[in-house]
C-alpha cells in the first residue's frame, strides 16, 4: 500500500525554574511580608526527583509500518534540571486497541491506519496531582499493493508482423495512498502511472526467451511482484502436419551446402607423388581420374582391323602432364582439360607399296577437351539431373614411336588413313571416358546430398522424460549457381514425431530471421544450418510432451516423504538463440516459463522456472553435435502459494533443478539435436579407373563453427583420398 510519511508527535513538558518558583509563591500578611506556604519539594524528597518532562518515540523509526510488525516505545523522563531520571516508571497505552500489548513497551501492530501510543509517568508531575504524558503517532499499512499485469500473459508467444517491442500493461491499486509514493518498476525501470493506477511501457524485443519482472512498491510493505517468461520471434513456422494430428515442422532451407569456386578449382595442381594421394578440389578428382582411367576399355580391340593391309592394337596406355580447369557457371560447370602426354604401346603392321611395315612400339599423343555440364533438380521429390550438354575434343598431336621409321613418317600424313582412323578412335575413347566420368562425379556427389538425410530416425529414451522418436527427412530442394562464385544445394528439412500434440495451439517453431547472407563467397565449402532448424527440433520434442513429467522422480530422498505431488509443465518450447551481451558462447539454450506445481506438507505452491545454458557446436565423426554447458543459470520464482512461506522455497528448488533435472534435460537435448552431415560421395569410379578402388570423400572442419546471422556456419574442406600404397 502507499504510505504517507508516518508522523510522530511528541510533547515535552519542561517547567523552567522560574515557573517552578512561581508555583511556590504565597501572599504575605497585611504587613506585606510573610513566609510562603509550604508546596511540593522540587527535589522530590525521599521519593526522588519530580518528573518535569517526558518524551516518547517509536523504534524502529520508519515513515510507515506494516501489520504484524512489532515496535517498541522508548521514553525519556527528565527532572527540573533536564537530567534524565533513570528508572522512572511509565505506563503505556494504545488508542482504539490498534495494537497488541506484548509487555515492557513492546506492541504488535494489528490495525491499518494511524495509531496513537500514549506514555504517562506513574508519579505526578510538578503540580503534584497529574502525571506527565506524551504521545506518538505512526502510520500502519495493511499489505502489499494490488498489482495486476494484463499484457503479456505468462508463456505468450509474441512477435511477427510489424511488432518490434514487447508491450507490458497493467494496473496497481493500494488501500492507502496518503502515506507514501506508489511506484511500479518493469525490469528495473520506473514506469509512469495514470490517475487510475494504470501503466503501459515497451521493452526491447529479443529473439528467444524474455524474462519480465514487474514490481509495485509503496515504500512501506513488501513489494508486490509479477514475473513471467515470454517467447519473442520475428516469425513462427507451422509445427503441425496438414491434418493437425502430429508434430511436424518443415524448413525449405534448413541446411545449405555451398560449394565455392575453390571447391571446383583452387588453382593448385594435384600432388601425384603424395602417398596417399589427396584431392583438394573437383579439378583434382578429374585429374586423378584421367591419370588412372583405363583408356583401353574405351578403345576397340584391335583399334584398326583391315588385315592384311592395316592392323593396329593398343596394348597399354599411360597419361601424364594433365591439366584440368573447372569453373562453376550458371546452371552447372565448365571443364577444360588437357592430356599433355598420352603414351600408348602398340603392335600391328601396315602394308605400304608392297612392303609390310612394323607398327610395333608405340605412339604419343596430346589431347584437349572442353565440356559444359548442366546440373539441376526440379524440387525436393525430383531426382538430380546431370548431363554433358557440350563436348569438344581436339587431338593436338600424334607422333609415332613405331619400330619402323617409314611407319612413323606415314603417321605424320594428315590425310592418311592411319592418322585419321587413329585420331577418330582416340577422340571417341576420350569422349566416352569424359561422358562417363564427368556426370558421374558431380551427379553422384550432389545425389549423395539428396539421400544422406532422407528418412532418418533418432530414438530418444531417458529415465525421466517420455520416450519419443524423432523422424528427420532432408532432401535437396534445388541447385542454385552464381558464375565463378558458388553452387548451392539447400536442403528441405522436415522434423516430426508420431506423438499426439501436447500444445496444438502453439504458434509454431521460433524462426530467427537473418538480414544478410551468412555464407561467404570466398570459402571453398561452407555448410550453413539454420538456428530455426534446431528450434524446430526442440519445438517438436516439446510438442510431443517431452516436458510434461511427474517431477517426484527428481526429488532427493530427504524430501520425497514430504511431497505429495510434483508436476512439471513447460509452457514454452526450449529455444536456442544467439548470445547476448557478455555471454561467452555463440548460442544459448533457454527453457522459459516452466511451471512446477508442488504439494508439500499441505502447501500448494506453483513455481516459475527459467533455465539457460551456453551452447557450442562442433563436428564430431561426421555429425554436428551440440555441447551444452554443464552449469546452467537457473531462475525460480513463486507464481502463487497457499502459504506465505512454502516448505520448499525458491533457493531450495533451484538446487533440486540443478542437481536432478538439468543433467537429464541436458543429455536429452544433446542426443536429440545431433545431426549427421550430408555426406558427399562420388560413386564407384573403378568402372572407368580401376586403380581408384577405395577412393572416398570426407569433410574436414577448416575452423570452428561460427554463428552468423540466422545460421550456424561451418567452413569445411572436402578431401578425397586413395588408400596408401595404391
CATH architecture of the domain at 17-141: Sandwich
Largest sheet: 9 strands, antiparallel
Provide the residue-averaged pLDDT: 86
Question: Helix/strand-derived class?
Answer: mainly beta
What low-confidence regions span 5 or more consecutive residues with pLDDT below 50? 1-38
Annotated CATH topology of the domain at 17-141: Immunoglobulin-like
Rg for CA atoms? 46 Å
The proportion of strand residues reads over 45%
Structural shape: rod-shaped
End-to-end distance: 87 Å
By CATH reckoning, the class of the domain at 17-141 would read Mainly Beta
Q: Strand tally, please?
A: 41
Helix share, percent: 10-25%
Tell me the number of helical segments per DSSP (H or I, 4 or more residues long).
Answer: 8
Structural summary, described in words:
With 726 residues, the protein is mainly β. Among the domains are: 17-141, Sandwich (Immunoglobulin-like); 146-232, Immunoglobulins (Immunoglobulin-like, Sandwich), CATH 2.60.40.10. The protein is built from eight helices and 41 strands. Strands 18, 19, 26, 27, 28, 29, 31, 40 and 41 form a nine-stranded antiparallel beta sheet that branches. Strands 32, 33, 34, 35, 36, 37, 38 and 39 form an eight-stranded antiparallel beta sheet that branches. Strands 20, 21, 22, 23, 24 and 25 form a six-stranded antiparallel beta sheet that branches. Residues 1-38 have low confidence and may be disordered.
